[in-house]
Fold:
Amino acid sequence: MVKGSHAAPSGASKVGYAAAFSANGRSIGGRTIEQIRSDFPALQRVIRHDGRENRVVYLDNAATTQKPQAVLDAMTDYYERSNANVHRALYTMGEESTAAFEATRKKVMRFINAASEREIVYTSGTTAAINLVAYSWGRTFLKQGDEILLTEMEHHSNLIPWQLVAKERGCTLRFLPVEEDGTVDLDRLPAVWSERIRLVAIAHMSNVLGTINDVRRVIEFAHARGVPVLLDGAQSVPHLPIDVQALDCDFLAFSGHKMCGPTGIGILYAKERILEEMPPFLGGGEMIEAVWLDHATWNDLPYKFEAGTPPIAESVGLGAAVDYLSSLTMEGVQAYEQELTRYALERLDAVAGLTLYGRAAARGAVFSFNIAGVHPHDLAQFLDREGVCVRSGHHCAHPLMRKLDVAATARASFSFYNTAEEVDLLVGALRKAKEFFI
Amino acid sequence: MAFEDLYQEIILDHYRHPRNFAALEEVSDENIHENPTCGDSVKLDVKLGADGLIESVRFNGRGCAISVASASMMTEQLAGLSVKEALAKISSFIKILRGKGDTAQLAEWGDLVALEGVVKYPIRVKCATLAWHAAIDLLVAKSSEPA
Structure:
């Protein structure tokens, strides 16, 4: 059966580009990948199975990323020193927590180049951010017979909220199709377009195919027809430099935990003019200006959309994560991940019997695949034994799975702290899995 | 956790060479049972003999090694039983896999002993019981059919 662990896969040296890549001692933002990796305690983890020990090879970054020590320290420090509810506290600790909470808002604003802090709304994550738009904007501005344009590659979190609001308002969903190569062909936009479309909601980057959609073109096309565009940035914001003013998107939703921050916090960016027109989503504390028994007036932006005690410690962690990414620079992150992507494609394509889903030229380091004769769940279980963490299943994209005509796929997704050697370990483990199951 | 407890050689053998596997094109797709978490599916056909005992069980579908092997073993386990006996065996099996029964029982059920390791992997219990849930539906329907 399977012998040894993490031996260099045979044939690695035959791949010319690959050898050059792994030997080169890359760095991002002036720090080597080894230095960067040492910032992440969870990447030092050793996975033990059947008396074998393997350093973890974490390749499930599209689901969530690991956290650098700086994020963990910031959150611990907050709880140990400054824990207090935000706003309206007149004591030192409350002032500190409020300052930290608002400092992160400013950091996020700069990170995505928003025009104002008023455009940065804290949510619990991408899903909550999109639901906020669906319920507040959608219920206000969508009318019977209106249409919403999505793509067939959307994550359920950018599909189900629209299904729900469409049902309630009597609207219809339209879809840009996914082509065989895993791209959305924007030449189809004029044919798919209808004058009743009131909103376009589209993934910036696919969590299954890795495809990076040409959202600038979608936004130009929609804006020329007076229609706003929401970007699901869950997969793009952690991997690409984002400038919401240059993109001119109307909404951008993303999660903290996929960009080295904690779970439980996300961001809705929206243009100030649009947020002003939207009614509150959740009611409660903080979102009000003045309250009477029978009515109330609303707080200023962005607080109008932040009912209840917000995720304060999480905002502190997110601030540290944004600092961390900013110190590396997102341009540096993108450039490194592009090299890693090219290398991974080359190596995965060399595995006999492997079908890769998604061949977009513009793509991130997310690879969904199947190996003939090995079920993705068996594959993921086998890889776990080798210390390699991949996901298997439908990746919250049932319609896309149906389009690809697969029940499930395995998915390996990389981040800037992953290395060419880890690509080799993945490929080596895939070959061992084939030997084991077939 | 022991990987090799989960993927024993008997399981791999049933996965590579499933017993009583058939196209079952004549069986309506309405009878397909699915595991929504992974999209695995199974379709069964049960033939009862003149004596009311189960003459044969055949299956079709797609799934992981655990789910295919478990379906394959089940087809062998249910043949020769009455519908009532089969239902009792199925419910005991599901109970054991969910960690609520005596795993020693599996040793008395031939190849099923190989599925003991699944109990330690709660996330895979659904894989191992998919065909068995399908069998309950089919047998209950059969037993309520007019003779």
